[in-house]
Amino acid sequence: MDHRKEIHDQVLNAANKDELREVYSEWADAYDHDLVNEMGYVAPTITVNEFQFYLHNNQVAILDAGCGTGLVGELLSKKGFQNIDGLDYSPKMLKKAEEKQVYRDLTQADLTSSLNIPDNQYDAVISVGTFTCAHVGPVAFNELLRVTKPGGYICFTVRDTAWEEDQYHLKMNVLEKEGRWKRIKADTANYIKQEGSKCKVCVYQVT
Ligand SMILES: C[S@@+](CC[C@H](N)C(=O)[O-])C[C@H]1O[C@@H](n2cnc3c(N)ncnc32)[C@H](O)[C@@H]1O
């Protein structure tokens, strides 16, 4: 099997958090090249373009949740955004993100637990490639909502297979009925071109 497909399969089928962290630790150095150049991972570009459509002020405080090696931070920085914090639970991925020198701050944390971030800290949260199989489920929305200011935006992808498996729409609709956020859009887009996978690119406004 192609080594890239092999490691990507391990990522999507990790049995637990420790195993997932281990696989990302092995993959961190080759991640950008393998996923973007060889496999056609287009989700960061698509999502950052969508994000920019709603956020016009380059001074906004942004949390890149599950920042990985910093592909999203790099794209945001190229578009002029300056106040970007990154959060991920893999130290090796965070180290690669640090090398890109586009983040104001980088933190190791688990998105499925309580975050050590005050309420209403960010104007916007962006999260690409993190809501996927064996990674982070819809439970993380509660904390992302808490740290985002009212009127702020949460922009994220959900991989197509995870969307079905984890019944994302149910949790997202409950949060909307509770008046926590408002759906701006949830469109289907390409995710990883070489494997033909799709994702939902979602934009929600915090109410
Ligand atoms: C496919 S990568 C996406 C990284 C980056 N956003 C991108 O688009 O390239 C998924 C990232 O989610 C992180 N991750 C997985 N589970 C996590 C959790 N529970 N808390 C925080 N980060 C997590 C992984 O360490 C990995 O860096």
Description:
The chain is of the alpha/beta class and 207 residues long. It has helices spanning 3-12, 17-38, 43-54, 71-78, 91-99, 141-147, 160-165, 168-177; strands at 61-65, 83-88, 105-108, 122-131, 148-159, 181-192, 197-206. It has a single domain (41-206), classed as 3-Layer(aba) Sandwich (Rossmann fold). It contains eight helices and seven strands. The chain has a seven-stranded mixed sheet, with helices on both faces. The site of S-adenosylmethionine (SAM) has 20 residues, from helix 2, helix 4 and strand 4. S-adenosylmethionine is lined by residues 20, 24, 44, 66-68, 71-72, 88-90, 93, 110-112, 128-130, 135-136.
Structural category is: alpha/beta
Biggest sheet strand line-up: 3-2-1-4-5-7-6
Order of helices and strands: HHHEHEHEEHEHHEE
The structural domain count equals 1
Helix content: 40-55%
Which CATH class is shown? Alpha Beta
Distance between the termini: 47 Å
Q: Name the poorly predicted regions.
A: none
The shape, in one word, is globular
Q: Measured on Cα atoms, how large is the radius of gyration?
A: 16 Å
The CATH homologous superfamily name equals: Vaccinia Virus protein VP39
Provide mean pLDDT, rounded.
96
Q: Helix tally?
A: 8
Hetero compounds: S-adenosylmethionine
CATH-assigned fold name: Rossmann fold
Strand content: 25-35%
